[in-house]
């Protein structure tokens, strides 16, 4: 029986919360509620039927990759993740890698984007053995155009410090902003055909759902 991504994410949550230092679970839950409140009515988020913004972003080795060059080869699946420090992101990326051949068979390219600098993106790519482009959206510029940027509460900063996570070093800025996990299916004409947005970063779209989207193109 195939294990769903959701079950893996739930197991990761249970394991982390069971081992987390006192006060950490409560702070994280409050932060999640903050994100859910801010995106309860996602009025600024790009919508199905709209044109996905064009972009040129560096890949994990610093080479610029443009949306035009990608779309020239067919539809795109664009997934945003918070960073290589996020265990949920790593599970989600690994789940996508496991279905990569199926995406390719359907003529769809997969690309993952985070605000991390290329060196951190390279670490993500190597750690998860990803065989698809991992791009750096420095300053969350593209994510901001899409309306999916979340400024984390300052209450989270001591937790990052406690776990030795330096977002300023990872991202090259001290905004403490991350994208809300989101995935977009963009057709060859650059139009958003489907999207998944979830303010609770512990939840992600199932790869099987993405394949259902693709079948409807």
UniProtKB/TrEMBL annotation:
It catalyses: a hydroperoxide + [thioredoxin]-dithiol = an alcohol + [thioredoxin]-disulfide + H2O. InterPro entries: AhpC/TSA (IPR000866), Peroxiredoxin_BCP/PrxQ (IPR050924), Thioredoxin-like_sf (IPR036249), Thioredoxin_domain (IPR013766). This is thioredoxin-dependent peroxiredoxin. It holds the Pfam family AhpC-TSA. GO terms for molecular function: thioredoxin peroxidase activity. Keywords: Antioxidant, Disulfide bond, Oxidoreductase, Peroxidase, Redox-active center. Its EC number is 1.11.1.24. It is an enzyme of class 1 (oxidoreductase).
